[in-house]
Design goal:
heterodimer, A: 181 residues, alpha+beta, 2 domains, two-stranded antiparallel ribbon, 4 helices, 7 strands, B: 652 residues, Aldehyde Ferredoxin Oxidoreductase,  A, domain 1, Aldehyde Ferredoxin Oxidoreductase Protein, subunit A, domain 2, six-stranded mixed beta sheet, globular
Chain lengths: 181, 652
């Protein structure tokens, strides 16, 4: 609760300063080791939920963290010029998607997603940030006011998905028919 | 399950086109660790003496250090070994960067290449999928294009590509193998060319397993932070712009001219601007908190990164300034040249021209400007045109071909290998031993644990000793305490100092640790990242084997003696162990020979510099002793050097 009486939540963020990245991949190593079972029992950067997109010849060093899974390849093949350097759209994209082999569990192919190193007890900061001695990754927590959100009930969720799948009319017709019998 | 190592090596025969994934014996790893140790064992077992280094029967081995690909910070160096065409001895080169870790994650501790492909090929490795692919379309391509084209062909931007450029394809002795910001520069490049192997592309997605996860992680996280904060590790040349040390003390041209007052503040300021006006960032190697590479974008050149003394070699060989190095380095590196030896070869050629041993006819169309001459000769050598075909043999090889007095200009090589251009006054006994007997071909791969100079201030000296936890034995601290003049310590101390210096390099090279956080950096400030007290603990937690200092030290001795015996079998003898004759102005042949005898004796070697049967057997190298006896190199009855009748005669 903040002083306006609104509910607050903690927003966790990892800030990236691409100018400071040297491409050592300590973040990838720490991530893969932390998520190994048992913890720290192996290193395999293909299992990491952070990846440095690295192209020395173009001076591109961009650490990106795995975000949501995307079912389809996107049409976006844009190129962006920032500070005189040209980047592919993929350079900044956190998605695990069919167009590249990033952020996929190498054994199963299932998508990986950054969990900000959820742990009990909680970590002081995510593993990748802790491993980055160059200051390319920094961790920030801030409180953010948020509107009172109404959580949908179980029935609402069920109906919403039915409507999504079959359309409102079919669901209503079925409901009417069933309620009569 | 195997821990830290994968337990497999990839064996590729390019003549047959065969690819085998071979399980290795864990007992070998426990004895030789990995890297140069395991590579030397394979060379000893599989390449008999008399094998022409250029022939398909020679091996080219990319051997991971035992700790590569783990969470141990600074463990990333691949030991690249072969029988070197330049002198017929074991060639040893180290490559940092990411190739080793990727190889581990692909499931291999090392890649062993044999044979010779019918035409140019490259090797593509993705875990268990390994292909020998056509590379004819890459012929003559530079490093940058080769790496990019292969990544595109494999549709994998995360594959690491170790390649040779035109220099390697044409078997130039000074050719290197490059991968990203790293290179294996000394001796394996031309062998890769002889095997017609343009490149190895590698990508891996498998686990590297660790035996005691929590313990190892705790040590490694602490070490990462310690290394980060420790100013005595890493490469100071990446950040300290005062480079008076090399410019005032090393020799310019063909290792000839010392310019003792070259450095000045205005020059430093000018060069600082030259660097930072064109530098994008520092870049690092796999899992290392030090970033030693400088990424430079020079006008009209492709981006390139350099590290360490590579910053100085071209402009010092040509009597120019830093801008010349920045201008020529990307071109030379793209052609696949080692920046250590190549400028010396070019300076040597221009000196021969000045002396009239070579004439204008040998350099048709060569420009007058010295900078343009360097470009001219780079091209000639890379593609072996005209005089370039001769110079491609390196200084010693070219001098022998040219004759007519050219041999006298080959004044800075040891065992036919170009050395750092250092010319000093008074003999330094420890350095005499290291340069004479080192099997790693360059002093920077041998020196490093014991400081180069004494500390005169008694308080500072005591403070240094207090913090000096790296010393393997208190006696080193005692010697340091009594040390006043650089060249004056008892011979026994000099011998043991050399032994410790060597030990750390041998351990690094078998474990994969970079010398900049370990063996090379103890000499500056004493507080190096790795030493004989923390290495055993790390090996124990990574592999699950109980290691202690004594067992570790024995691994060093085993690898040192194995490599020595391998080289003895290839012809290495006492008479070859000589620093350049003009390395020091004042020499004392008699004393030097006595010193050499004492060193051999300490090592358990014969008067000729060969490990005795007893020495080898003590180190589980009985099979090596047997082989040397069978070949008549040992009788089995030899005594160590000081007990030899020749040593007694020497004393009289």
């Amino acid at each position: 609760m903040d002083n306006t009486g609104k509910k607050t939540r903690i927003v966790k963020e990892i800030k990236v300063d691409t100018k400071r990245c040297v491409g050592c991949r300590a973040c990838e190593i720490a991530c893969s080791a932390f998520h190994a079972i048992p913890k720290y029992s192996s290193v395999n950067t293909a299992r990491s939920r952070i990846m440095i997109v690295m192209d020395e010849m173009r001076d591109i060093f961009v650490p990106i963290r795995a975000g949501d899974y995307a079912q389809a390849e996107c049409n976006g093949r844009n190129r962006y010029v920032i500070d005189g350097k040209e980047y592919d759209e993929c350079t900044f994209c956190p998605a695990s998607c069919p167009s590249r082999d990033a952020f996929k569990e190498p054994d199963s192919g299932l998508p990986l997603k950054c969990d900000m190193c959820e742990s009990v007890p909680p970590l002081e900061k995510p593993m990748c940030v802790d491993a980055c001695t160059f200051g390319a990754l920094t961790y920030e927590e801030r409180e953010e006011a948020r509107a009172e959100e109404e959580k949908p009930g179980d029935m609402e969720i069920v109906f919403e998905s039915l409507v999504k799948k079959h359309g409102k009319k079919k669901v209503m017709d079925t409901f009417t028919r069933l309620s009569k019998s | 399950m195997r821990y830290a190592e994968t337990g497999f090596q990839l064996e590729v025969d390019l003549s047959k086109g065969s690819i085998d994934k071979v399980e290795t014996d864990p007992r070998d790893t426990a004895l030789y660790l990995g890297g140069n140790g395991m590579n030397a064992k394979l060379l000893f077992e599989r390449v008999p003496p008399g094998t022409d280094p250029w022939s398909p029967d020679n091996l080219l081995i990319f051997g991971n250090g035992l700790l590569n690909g783990t969470c141990v910070p600074g463990a990333n160096r691949v030991s690249v070994n072969t029988i070197a065409p330049v002198n017929g001895l074991m060639g040893h080169s180290l490559m940092g960067g990411f190739f080793g870790a990727e190889m581990k994650m692909a499931g291999y501790d090392r890649i062993v290449i044999r044979g010779e492909a019918p035409d140019l090929v490259y090797l593509a490795i993705h875990n268990d999928k390994v292909e020998i692919r056509d590379a004819r379309h890459l012929r003559g391509k530079g490093m940058v294009d080769t790496q990019r084209l292969i990544q595109e062909e494999l549709n994998d931007k995360r594959a690491w590509v170790a390649a040779i450029g035109p220099a390697g394809e044409h078997r130039v002795i000074m050719a290197s193998i490059d991968c990203g910001n790293s290179s294996a520069a000394r001796t394996p490049g031309p062998v890769m060319g002889a095997k017609k192997l343009k490149a190895i592309a590698i990508r891996g997605t498998k686990d590297v397993n660790l035996a005691h996860p929590a313990e190892l992680w705790e040590i490694c996280s602490r070490l990462r932070k310690e290394l980060d904060e420790n100013p005595n590790v890493g490469d100071w040349m990446a950040t300290d712009e005062d480079d008076s040390f090399h410019h005032n003390n090393f020799s310019w041209g063909n290792a000839r001219v010392r310019r003792k007052n070259f450095w000045s503040e205005p020059l430093e300021e000018r060069w600082r601007n030259l660097k930072y006006d064109h530098m994008d960032r520092w870049t690092g190697c796999w899992n290392c908190p030090k970033a030693c590479h400088n990424l430079i974008q020079w006008p009209n050149r492709r981006r390139f990164s350099y590290k360490c003394y590579g910053k100085d070699t071209y402009h010092m060989a040509s009597f120019q300034e830093l801008d010349f190095t920045f201008e020529i380095l990307p071109v030379a590196m793209d052609l696949g040249f080692d920046s250590y030896s190549t400028p010396q070869v070019i300076a040597f050629a221009l000196e021969l021209l000045e002396a009239g041993i070579l004439t204008e006819k040998d350099f048709p169309g060569m420009p007058c400007d010295v900078r343009q001459r360097f470009y001219y000769l780079l091209q000639k050598i890379a593609f072996r045109e005209g005089i370039g075909d001769v110079l491609a043999h390196g200084v010693s090889g070219a001098a022998a071909i040219i004759g007519n007095g050219a041999e006298k200009f080959d004044h800075n090589t040891v065992k036919k290998f170009e050395q750092l251009p250092i010319k000093l006054g008074k003999l330094n006994p420890a350095y005499f031993l290291m340069i004479a007997t080192g099997e790693d071909m360059a002093i920077t791969q041998i020196e490093g644990s014991f400081p180069q100079d004494p500390i005169t201030d008694p308080e500072l000296k005591e403070e240094f000793i207090r913090k000096w936890i790296a010393v393997p034995d208190k006696k080193f601290a005692e010697w340091f305490r009594q040390w006043v003049k650089r060249d004056q310590l008892p011979d026994d101390a000099m011998v043991e100092i050399v032994d410790w210096n060597e030990a750390m390099h041998y351990l690094d090279d078998s474990l994969g640790l970079c010398g900049f956080v370990s063996s090379f950096r103890g000499q500056f400030g004493g507080t190096t990242g790795y030493h004989v007290w923390n290495m055993p603990q790390i090996i124990t937690h990574a592999t699950g084997w109980d290691f202690d200092k004594d067992r570790l030290w024995e691994c060093f001795q085993r690898n040192r003696n194995l490599i020595r015996a391998l080289n003895n079998r290839l012809g290495l003898r006492r008479f070859m162990e000589r620093p350049p004759e003009d390395h020091w102005a004042v020499r004392n042949e008699e004393y030097e020979q006595q010193l050499l005898t004492k060193y051999y004796d300490f090592k358990g070697w014969t008067f000729d510099g060969i490990p005795t049967k007893e020495t080898l057997e003590k180190l589980n190298l009985g099979y090596v002793a047997e082989d040397l006896i069978k070949r008549g190199i040992l009788t089995g009855n030899e005594v160590t050097a000081l007990k030899d009748a020749r040593a007694k005669k020497e004393k009289e």
